[in-house]
Specification:
By secondary structure, the chain is an alpha/beta fold. It has 14 helices and twelve strands. The longest helix is centred in the middle third of the chain and has 20 residues. The structure holds pyridoxal-5'-phosphate.
Length: 401
């Protein structure tokens, strides 16, 4: 039977346990599995290779992405690393310019040492994307909405172009989650998640996962998962599965709250600019409307304030915790220039549109009025400067979907 998203989130890969009928899929906390005869197993041999709780998570996320197989990793970056391990020295990768800082670091500081070559382009611009392709381009790395500016890439158009050039497409779907967007249906080959974020949703696990349709590619990635060994433990898989059960209801509330918070911020005199795909003026709004169910719950703002006042703002909120990460039930806030994107060189950062006054909000599922009150009192207390007056976005109503 074909079940819909919210049913799959609770049932896919997680039947009631056979022996006792336990309705929650158990944590198989074991490193190895007894064999029937030498080399003959009951389907599981060794904990790095496979584990029933991990397999339940892999099947569940694959079902949610509408894909064939999930392959789980110890972190989002371990999952990203596995994608690069599909390549060989001399291969070329095109990636979006405003990329998650840790992925940028993985590319430029680790894999560039092994003869992989990277081009960072503005993938929201089809001409730039087209120009970046070379005969040896093997991978196109998309992030939409992107981090931290929430820029939107047309996943279907970019994937079609990559396909025509013989390159695979990896889509980092961490910000949108499969509830809002399913990149495999839009033509991507591999979907990546940091399950640390919305999929787990409760700020208590680090994890990552890939989802692929092509069986041969899945087998290659599963080989890498076992051969390299960056696998998640069964407890963590259990917690992520538990989080996923409420993904749909959480995302509805996250997105509703974000619309209210974005509207408040866009009308605030100390806010110079609001980056949120729900605004009609946001670059890529129409594409987001087409490829996403709702606009997500990540908002970036540029304050009309100096670096020092921006950093002070980040310490004045009481409900928004100043912390790395996103996608939790609890609201979080960060200062990308000195936190998530500190590993990106300052001149590259500014060139990529990440000014010192940028603050990124991950809107949680608390009461929206309380969140607005919290941001309001923190904005009251900072000193704004007229030098940041020009180019302010007009207030307006963001759309929900
Ligand atoms: C957090 C994040 C990652 C890295 O995931 P970890 O679980 O922290 O290793 C990759 N991509 C995006 C978009 C992220 O937000």
């Amino acid at each position: 039977m074909d079940f819909r998203f919210d049913t799959l989130a609770i049932h896919a890969g997680q039947p009631n346990e056979q022996r006792t009928g336990a309705v929650t899929f158990p944590i198989f906390q074991t490193s190895t599995f007894g064999q029937l005869k030498p080399g003959v197993t009951r389907g599981f041999s060794y904990g790095r290779t496979d584990n029933p709780t991990r397999r339940a998570l892999e099947e569940c996320v694959a079902a949610l992405e509408g894909g064939g197989q999930g392959i789980a990793f110890a972190s989002g970056l371990a999952a990203a690393s596995a994608c690069l391990q599909l390549l060989r020295s001399g291969d070329h990768i095109i990636a979006s310019r405003d990329l998650y800082g840790g992925v940028y670091r993985l590319f430029t500081k680790v894999y560039s040492k092994f003869g992989l070559d990277f081009t960072f382009a503005d993938l929201t611009d089809p001409t730039q994307l087209e120009a970046a392709f070379r005969p040896e381009t093997k991978l196109l790395w998309l992030e939409s909405p992107s981090n931290p500016l929430l820029r939107i890439t047309d996943i279907a158009a970019a994937s079609a172009l990559a396909k025509s050039r013989g390159a695979l497409v990896v889509a980092d779907n961490t910000f949108a989650t499969p509830y809002l967007q399913q990149p495999l249906r839009l033509g991507a080959d591999i979907v990546l998640h940091s399950t640390t974020k919305y999929l787990n949703g409760h700020s208590d696990v680090i994890g990552g996962i890939l989802v692929v349709r092509d069986a041969e590619r899945a087998a290659e990635l599963r080989f890498i998962q076992n051969a390299v060994g960056a696998v998640p433990g069964p407890q963590d898989c259990f917690l992520i599965l538990r989080g996923i059960k409420t993904l749909g209801v959480r995302m509805e509330r996250h997105c509703r709250n974000a619309v209210q918070v974005a509207e408040f911020l866009a009308g605030h005199p100390k806010v110079r600019r609001v980056h949120f795909p729900g605004f009609a003026w946001h670059h890529g709004h129409e594409i987001a409307r087409r490829q996403q169910r709702m606009f997500g719950a990540m908002i970036s703002i540029e304050l009309r304030a100096s670096l020092a006042e921006t950093q002070r703002f980040a310490t004045l909120t009481k409900l928004f915790t100043l912390a790395e990460s996103l996608g939790s039930v609890k609201s979080l806030l960060c200062h990308p220039p000195t936190m998530t994107h500190a590993s990106v060189e300052p001149e590259v950062r500014r060139k990529n549109g990440i000014p010192d006054g940028l603050v990124r909000l991950s809107v949680g599922i608390e009461d929206a009025e309380d969140l607005i009150g919290d941001l309001g009192q923190a904005l009251e207390r900072i000193v704004s400067s007229a030098e940041f007056d020009e180019d302010r976005t007009a207030p307006g109503r963001p759309a929900l979907s």
